[in-house]
Amino acid sequence: MAVDKKKLIDLYTRTLKVRLFEEKVWELFGENIVPGTLHLYLGQEAVAAGVTAALKDSDWVQSTHRGHGHVIAKGADEKKALAELLGKATGSCKGKGGSMHITEFKKGVLGATGVVASGLPIAVGAALSCKMRGTKDVVACFFGDGASNNGTFGESLNMSAIWQLPVIWIVENNLYAMGTPIKLTCPSATIAERANGYCIPNTVVDGNNALEVYEATVEAVKRARQGGGPTLIECRTYRQRGHSRFDPAKYRPEDEAKEWLSENRDAVNVIRKIAIERSALTEKEADKIREKLQKQIDKAADFARNSEYPKPEDALEDVYAEAF
Amino acid sequence: MTEMTYREALKAGLREEMQRDESVFLMGEDIGLNWGGAFKVTKGLAEEFGEERVRDTPISENTIAGAAVGAAITGMRPVAEIMFGDLITLAMDQVCNQAAKMRYMFGGQTSVPLVIRTVFGGGKNIASHHSQSLEAWFMHTPGLKVAVPAFASDVKGLIKTAIRDPDPVLFAEHKLVYDKKEEVPDEEYLIPFGEAKVRREGADVTVWGTFFMLHKALEVAEELAKEGISVEVIDPRTLVPLDKKTIIESVKKTGRLVLVTEETKTLATTAEVAAIVQEEAFDWLDAPIKRVNAPDTPVPFAPTLENFFIPDHKRIAQAIRDII
Asked: Which residues 109-138 on chain A approach chain B with CB closer than 8 angstroms?
């Protein structure tokens, strides 16, 4: 596939933006101003970047408990996103959702969910809606390797296939469901091949390579828009850190972690190298993009820090469209 | 006015809304061409509106409910059917964690205008998995509205309101009322949620109940009138919102309250209503509040057992006599 320079810059920028966003979240966590827990997207940035770069603004993504990256890559306002993580009234969910429900609906994010595998049925419905309303929009549904062991995986893949829905199933296989290795819970070598049982075309890509993810998604999106139904893309990737904020991930074998977390497999380094090798960017331009994004994220963090917390009684609002 | 069954009135309401609004569609197991719904409510609608809008689904309750969520938040007005109320246990995540909470946890960004139709209640000797009355679970889930139509003249106006409501509605029906006939208005009408109906006026005791128990209570009231006991019978029509005002005004008039539902007793809707009345109308009570419910057991199969389980005329009459 011929990928133009502009798209390579886009892929680098998206990947890096998610990285810088998550590093900022980690920094804010260090300041002890992020309530609750965190499931950082660090390490998996290329998946969100590659998928969203293949979508239009009007297309949808369904996110997960590890959702910051999906939302930011889809174009959510980083100020509102960081404010949400801090539980501020200016957050995209007015401080009612936090890390696990970070969402900006107007940017095409159906929602982030705290229940593993609960996003798949919602993606089915959104894709059915796109089809019934004749919009030609598609839905990209992110979920982890762990979610592929839940009943909704079978139900939803099946429904998407019988109705030939415009949905792209994105498995972020980071090899662990919390601390349980996927090889203990999945009998096949790949998760992708499970889709064969539902007659869904599927593929496995390097989830640390935004370009590979992008190219696979473009093909899937094309199929979906043409009425060709769903596709499943398994993206092999790895968490930079543990499952949640206090998990040091000691259960991962040292050599495995060393290999996955090496400089040359790092999601940002991979796409930066490709973009430079293909003359889409010079080293200097790449650095300049980083500086610009860093400023943007720093500014967003200041906005979040300086925002007010919601009033306690705001807890009573937004249960129904109209209170009764 | 035309005399029709509850089933016919419900179908007429669905049909009118489908004619009025193209975004309204039905989905569920066996609701389409071959069967027309386990209780024949949707019979003929697939022929009239096509299989796209009267959509048979696989046996995948969680994804039926979840797909309704995904369709609802992206511009459709789905009416999903769960064939038996007992089977909604398979869809609890989508109903209670997703549909009910999305508006709230996303800070008001999302509206979830869906209806889940299902059917509760015993009396058909179909045992523990097809006879339960689980409405209290949903009354206990903030974010859901709960409609409990018991009469043909109400069910049509309530389903129309449910479909137009911006919030998710659990629309519960009862197996033994589908064939009950009543005069139903010929012109279009909607019944607002949160408005109870006084089905029979009386001066000595108030009976509040739901579903088939209301039909029994009205028959009991007729019998007791011969003995000079004047019974007022109230149908809440919706549990969420709950019309407290009508109950309390009635209790202020009669000073006595009997609560009758088919639910197992512990934490039934009757417990909530009893608590509300003692909080808000304690001084007007001339006798203890009586609750008539099923025992705290699964629903049994054999007719002798099930007839013992479901409150009968005798038990309702006895509860009334106990406090007169």
From this structure: 110-111, 113-115, 118, 120-130, 132-133
First to last CA, chain A: 56
Cβ separation A318–B194 shorter than 8 A: no
Mark yes or no for CB contact B143/A123 under 8 Å.
Answer: no
Domains observed in chain B: 2-184 (3.40.50.970), 197-323 (3.40.50.920)
Of chain A residues 9-28, which have a CB less than 8 A from chain B?
none
Nearest to B31 by CA among B82, B90, B70, B67: B82
In the predicted model, is pLDDT for residue A246 greater than 90?
no
- Residue among A18, A24, A28, A134 at smallest CA distance from A66: A18
Side-chain-side CA neighbours of A292 within 13 Å: the count stands at 8
For residue A245, what pLDDT is reported? 82
Q: Report the pLDDT averaged over residues A49-65.
A: 98
Q: What is the pLDDT of residue A2?
A: 84
What is the pLDDT averaged over residues A176-204?
97
Asked if A145 is an interface residue toward chain B (Cβ–Cβ < 8 A), one would say no
Q: If one looks up domain A5-305 in CATH, what number appears?
A: 3.40.50.970
Contact B74 A60 (CB under 8 A): yes
